[in-house]
Amino acid sequence: MASGASLWTACGPVALPLLLLSLAVFTVAFERGSFWWRWWRQGRRPWRELQQRLAACSTIEEHTLVLNQQDAAMAWGEPVLQAALILTPLLGLVGTTSGLMGVLRTLGPQLLLPPSAPLAGYAAVLMPTLVGLQVALLATALLLLNQRLRQWQIGRLQRQPLRPALAEHP
Questions:
Q1: Distances in Å between the alpha carbon of 20 and those of 26, 67, 86?
Q2: The pLDDT of residue 1
Q3: How many helices (H) and strands (E) does the chain have?
Q4: CA angle, 45 then 155 then 81, to 5°
Q5: pTM for this one?
C-alpha cells in the first residue's frame, strides 16, 4: 500500500479533485448514515409525526407538498453521489493517462527501462484509476442504498389512506 505522500504524488494533477470528491462522498455518507440512524432509532415517532402532518393537510396539493418535502429531505446528497459516480473514474483515468505519458517520456524514444529503475515502480501510474474506482464504488453503493430506503419510505407514505375530505376532491 502506498503512503499518503506517495499516493498524493502518484495521482498527479487529479489528486486535489479526487481528494475533494472523496471528502464530499464521505461527508454525504456520514450525513445519510446519521439521518437513517435517527429515522430508525426513534422508532415510530418520525413516522407518526409525518402521518400527523399528512392528516392535517386540507388539500391534495398540501398533501403532495408534504410528501415532496420529505422526499427531498431523504434525497439529500444524492446529486453529490451522482457527480462522484461519474467524475471520479474519469479523473482517475486522466491521472493514469498523465502518469503514463510521464513514464513514456522517461523511457525515451527507444522505450527502454533505465537499468536502475525496476518495472514495478511504474505501477504507481495506475493509482489514480484505482482511487477513482474505489470512490465511485462507494458513491454507487451509498446512492443506491439511499434511493431504495427513500423509495421504500415514501411508497409506504403514499399508500396511507387519505382523509375522507381529501379523497373526495378530484
A1: 10, 33, 14
A2: 47
A3: 7, 0
A4: 90
A5: 0.82
